[in-house]
Amino acid sequence: MTVDIGYYTLFEGSGTAAQGGHVSDIGQNGIDLTGLNNFAGLEVAYVNNSDFRYNRAWNDNQAAIHQFVQLGGVFVFHDRASNGPGGFQPDAFLPQGNEVNFVDDTGDFANGVFGALDDSSLDGLTYSNTGYVDVDDIQDGQFAVMLTRDDPTHAVTTLEAEGFGFFVWSSLATHYFADPSLGNDPEMIAYIENVLDWAGEAAQLNLILGNNTDDNMAGTATWDRALLGEGNDTFAAGTARTTSAARPARTASWAA
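and the corresponding structure tokens:
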């Protein structure tokens, strides 16, 4: 089944050619968005922030973004600003860094269909990430830590459950290094395509309930491999949720 993925970059007023290429590469249907106020019919929203601040497209549409996730969508947000006021992770910190480690070296983000990555794959760029969040600040929420800096308490990619859906937040500089016309780093491209492939499958199957169960990283409450049925997560009788039985039907009311 083809998944509809809407893509958009703050301050561009639309998606970029690179984002459309990533969606096309993974074999899904890409929709170039002109704003963040209407997610009707989408399974995944793929959003980049290429600036160190936020604009009205972000600030004025928080209700629509959260409603999209609560109804089962997956919102993938790579955020150059990271710690700016009004950002998704307001407690994130600078400075920029160039080391990135996977918490789960065999999980879908690292070892996905579109590339097998390890803890050296995303290192050594001018800056691989633009900030981090201290895992102690998020340990009481429904968060899984997916990628960190060399310091395992400094998260640079997190997964958060809300309602029936998920937020992926990251400070990785995909807006630049995953763009063939800019940084053109093949491993950063593989990373974002692995993430989008996982997001499409997660939104389509709606497997994870999103309950905190145990720690897989010192100092933070996470799920044990919170990806598509692996590990010790709690599932709805081990089966995929259906639109009719498990969540409200998707309608144009997703729009703000």
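(Above: one complete record from the training split.) The first strand starts at residue 4 and ends at 10.
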